[in-house]
Each structure stands twice: as structure tokens, then as C-alpha cells.
Amino acid sequence: MLTANRRQLLGGAGLSALAAAIPGGAYARPAAGKPDLFIGTGGHGHTYPGAVLPFGMVQIGPDTDNSRWDSCSGYHKGDSSIMGFSHTHLSGTGIGDMLDVLVVPARGPLKLQPGSLEQPETGYRQHYADEVAEPGYYRVQLANGVAAELTATERTGLHRYRFPAGPGHILIDFAHRTIDSWDKGVVIDQASLALEEDGTLTGSRSVHRWAKGRRIHFALKLSRKPDRVAFFGDGDAAAPAGARSVAGNQLKVALFFDEAGGAPILIKTGISAVDVAGAKGALAAEAPGWPFDTARRAARARWAKQLGCVRAEGGTPAQRTILASALYHCFLSPTLFTDHDGRYVGMDRAVHQAPADSPAFSTYSTWDTYRAFHPLLTLIQPERATMFARDLIRQTQQSPYGPPVWQLQGVETGTMIGWHSVVILAEAHAKGVKADYAAAWPNIRRRAFDRAFADTDASLGRGYYYDLGYVPADKIWESVSRTQEYAYDDWAMAALADAAGASDDAAALRRRSGNYRNVLDPTIGFARPRFADGSWWQDYDPIQLGHAPDKYRDYTETNGWQATVLNQHDIYGLIAHFGGDAAFERKLDALFTAPSTLPRNAPPDISGLLGQYAHGNEPDQHAAYLYAYAGAPWKTQAMVRRLLTEMYKDDPDGVIGNDDCGQTSAWFVLSALGFYPVDPVSAVYVLGSPLFDRVEVDVAPGRTLRVVARGNAADRPYVQSVQWNGRPWSRNWIAHADLVKGGTLTFEMGATPSRFGAAKEDRPPSFGRIPI
């Protein structure tokens, strides 16, 4: 969920019926067990209901707003009007960008500005009703009488507009973008629009918002030739009559039809980050002719196969809908970034050629997704995990900053802290994903040891970290979280050093991964800001954001409570640091039962509070599973079941915080299965409390993992015993290598706690050991 960093970067009869549906417009809910694309589009979930293929380059959908935090995706279910339909969106992020090539089907006088949410009639916005969204398809009725439908291929967006009889026009607003008060200077430049002899409209622009300097190119065709075309340049200045092109920064073009009714007007748009030729190539390869219905059927079939890899029985109808919707959100990003001919823009901003079996991708929210999203893919989509691992290795080689942090459209945004792509790679290596990890090691090593290696905001303070063993709070902002997360990246980089044959580096990095202890004060039992002279911040309050929050924070989207349990790789070291099992169990109890108060300047990302635990944000999402390491797995079981049932709803406000490119959804999927990867690099899962009576998961061709929960019920969350393939299983964890072979994991559930998995020899390994 986004942090201070992220937050700072944003920041007639028919009309009578329509009005009754406002705000937000009515929509058709799917049957139980089918994904509801509107889950997460309300509240602070920041998802969108547009049409897209799994991990597709085009995400075509409605934009309801582009200028506030809750519309980071371009859409919010609480809004009452639609601006138009753009071709690129971000799912669940806490910073907005994209929203490229807005198409506005309109009637009446031409309006070049959208107007406001409060007064949509002052611009081209339209009230709407009767929304339908299903995987790969979107439909809505606009108040101006236009019925709009959208579908997509991987690289093209397809529109179908049915106009009432009479004149109409289609506006292409190429100035449309995310607007944020933090933006400085020119945000869009080097823009051009041109109408070619065959009627193809092409365009290019550079955008300097979040992914600064990204390029977008498009090629658009219409099924009907417009009667007139008008171009508009900067300041909405009309180009000369008869002009067939325009250049500048803020550009638009209007396509007029004297009779827009009758046969629907179809539009197909290809996009590329490389050049207009790449966008045209997308149209030629993926949308020959006018294949709207064919593309819609293909999208439906593609999604049915994708979502069918997990099949659940039991639970409530709402829970089955939440599961399907969470799976859907896990298949939206990273997004394809390779043209049909294999070209892509690398992290060095040069054009490269990708191998046919290893395309390039965009939209890696690594600070969020290394925790559960990528582990989920290694289980249910191993071929996709392989693609991502190979792509991240290339990006590590090409980027001037080495391992990616938050890559968007070939640009390192440097958002959040750490360089957690190394965790994704280390986990993939541990789970047997085939890739050339040694090829990434030189730049990973530079990030690990070279003080002169280029830094982004994400990696500041490395010199202090090397010299002092921690990042001092009086020198670098977010110092406590940086120390902890740099230590976890050390743990991951050690595994990659071993893969590259650099055993001395691996040993040094493992030792250094213990630096997390240097910001944990055992005298008070909390993660605490520490200064360069070794002293601790004295005026400490664990709900506060740090020693000088009006200047900067000492934690990243957390406070002292949540940061205290941030460690993932050395849980037994953490337990010992705080005085043993009983003391650590009490610390976890206090986390979940403390008053849910936050300071006035807490970022909105700290959400979904249960005590001081924040499920709506990533840093402590593993905390419920830590009881298992302290010998109290029944508390893990009870708390996981509570989070599954209280933090997710089958409602637009059904995601407790930003979904963050599928991370919060992936937590639900894995926890509902009954296990979770506290430390992905270790390639093991800690057992929890399965939500459904029976789940089948396709883990490889011809291999199925079955999870059965006997005696399961809402009031029976406790594990009494476990069997693996019919044999007793005493350990409170299971290895990825076991699960991917397929088999049956059977839980016996009960209403009261049991001692299953509590013995020291049955607790999960951490830092390569169990507590014996």
C-alpha cells in the first residue's frame, strides 16, 4: 500500500432512471464463485473494472476521475460520472499514472474539457447506469444515450459504441492523464497526433508523472469514416481547417459523424512503448478486421482457463466470490511490455529484442508483491513465474540501478525502500525456477557492496548501513524500516550469491542480514529510531511515525508497533532478542489487542487495523503466522481465520487497503488454502487455517494439489491434526517442493485449540534452522 513515498507522489425517462442509480451507477453482480470486478473499486482498494487479458499490455476501461488519491486507478465506484475510456490502468496502486488515450463518445456541442465530478454537465463527463464487468469485457449505458462496450486482446483495446439517431462525435483526449498536486513542471511533452491516408489515427507522447519519461504510442482505426476531423493543440487551440496533424504537449482530436446512429461505431487501438510501428503491428497481428465479438469470446475463454486453476467447495457464497475476485486481481500485473515483434524498451531506455519464451513486463511493485503474490505464482502459475524471473534478471542487467525496486513502463521509479526484486529472484531460485541467476549477480553485488553505485530514494543510507550496521534516524528518513528491509535483502542476496558461486559474498551477506537487530531495542521491546552516535530516540511512542514526523518519518508506511514484527528471515533470532517464546507471544498478543489509534499525520496506507496490526498494508501481513514460531500455532489459526472473514468483503469496498498489484488479494488466496510463505526465500509455507472445505489447485500439467478441511465451519478454525497423502504430518509447515508434486493435504478442524505443531521440532524453519 503506498507509503509516504507513494502518497507524496500522487496525491428524459432514461435520465430519471439513471439518476436513481447515482452515485456510482448500478451494476450486475456475478453468480457466487465468479469474480466480481467491482470488488476493490470502492474504499481505498484502487482497482478498476475494465477489460484486460491476464497480464495484458492493454487495460481498457472507464475513467471516473484522475485527480485524487482514491482514483489512482482512474476509477472509483463512488463517483457518479464517467469521463471516457482509456487504454491503460494500474490495479491497486497508491500512486496514479497511465490512463493513456482517452476515448470519449459524445453527442451535442463539442466540449474539450471533462468538467468536474460535482458538475459533470460543464464538460464531457456523463452520468451512467447499468454497468456490467466480467473478465475481458465491460459495458455501460451513458446518459447521453450511447451504449459503450469494451474488450481487449493483449496489445489492443476494442470499443463498440451504439449511438442514438442523429449527429455524434468521438473525442480522443490525448492530454488526459493522472493529475496530482505534487506534479511539477511539464508532465506531458513531445506529443503528436496524425491522421494517415488510410484513416489510421496515430499518436505519441512522453509522460513525466510517476514513471518519468515513459513513452506511449498508439494506432487507432474506426469502422466508419468520420465526416469531419478537427485537431486541437496546446490550450485547446484549434488547428487550421483541413489539418491532418498537430504537435505540442496537450493534444486532442474530434471525429464528427453527421449520423452516428445505425450500425455501431467500432474502434480498435493498438499501443506500444517502442514506436507507432509497434502499435500498428499490434493491430495487424491481434485485431484484423473488426473482431469485437470474437475477441470477447477469446477473452472469456482465456480467463476461464486462467481462473480455473483453483477450484473451491464450501465456505459461503460470498467467500467463493471473494476467492475468484482475488485470483482475478492476481492475474492483472505485471503487465506485458513487449511488442508483437518482441521489441521492448529496457531499463537503460534502449530498445531490445526479447526471446519468444521470455517477454518483457512492466509494473513490478516489488515492495508489495514479493510477500505473497510472487509465491502464489510459483505455485499456481510456474511458467509465469519463470517469465518474470528471467525478465527481472534482464532488468537487473540493464538498469543503471541494478535490481529493480518499482519498475513502471521501463522506468525505475525508486518508490518505496529496498530492492526486493532480489527476494523474488532468490525465491524463484530456491523453488527450482530455471533462469540465469549468475547473469544478474554483478549488478546485484554492486548494490550489495559498492558505495559508489547509483542510488534512488529506495536505497539511500547504504554507507551508514555498512559502517554502523543500521541507518541512523538523524541522517536518512525512514531509517528504521530501511535497516530492517536492507537486512532482508541481504538475506535474499546471500542466496543469489550462492547461486553465482560467490560463497564469500554469501557468508558476508548472511552475517549482515542480522543488522535488523540494531534498530530493535530489547529494553523496551520495540523497533526504535536510533541516531548516528548510537543513542536511541528517547521520547518514544510506538504509535508515532518517528522522532521528527513533521520533517520526515522513521518508518515506511508503519509505526513502531508494526515495524517491530517486520522481520521475516530470522524469526528465532527475533524471538531470542525479545526474551523467548512467552515474551514474544505476549508481544504478538499486544499487537493485535492494542488500541487502534494512529497519529493525525499517519498515511492512509496504514489501514485495516486490528489492534495495531494493519492488514491494509504489507509490512506486517505475515504477523499472524509468527505465533507458530513461538509455539502457539492455534493463535495463528484463530487470527488468520478472523482476518480472512473480517478484512475481505464481496463489495466494492471489499479490499481493506490498496490491493497493490494483487498482493492483498494473494494473501487471501494463500491463507484461504491454509498456508502462507512468511519467508519466501526459504521456500516453505507455514500452516494456518483453511477457509474452504475442499480446494483443488493445478500446480503443474497433470499435477493437482488438494486441500481438504474436515469438520470445517465458521466456529471451527482450529487445526487438530494434519495428513499429507494419507500419512500423519506433525510439522506445522510444508515445503514448496512437496506441494508442487501434487497430493492431498488434509486438515482435521475443531472448535477448540490443539497442540498440533507446537513442539519445537515441528515449528517452521527460519534462517535455516528450527529452535532445537
Describe this structure in words.
It is a single chain. With 772 residues, the chain is α+β, with helices and mostly antiparallel strands. It is 26% helix and 21% strand. The longest helix is centred in the middle third of the chain and has 21 residues, at 479-499. The protein is globular and about 80 Å long. The two termini are 37 Å apart. Mean pLDDT is 95; it is low at 1-24.
Q: Span between N and C termini?
A: 37 Å
Number of beta strands:
36
Unreliable stretches (pLDDT < 50, length at least 5) are: 1-24
Major beta sheet summary? 10 strands, antiparallel
- The dominant shape is globular
Largest sheet strand order: 2-5-6-7-8-16-12-11-10-14
Supply the number of helical segments: 19
Mean pLDDT: 95
Helical fraction: 25-40%
Short note summarizing the structure:
The protein has 772 residues and is of the alpha+beta class. It is 26% helix and 21% strand. Strands 2-5-6-7-8-16-12-11-10-14 form a ten-stranded antiparallel beta sheet. A six-stranded mixed beta sheet has the order 17-31-32-36-33-34. It has a four-stranded antiparallel beta sheet with strand order 4-9-15-13, with no helix packed on it.
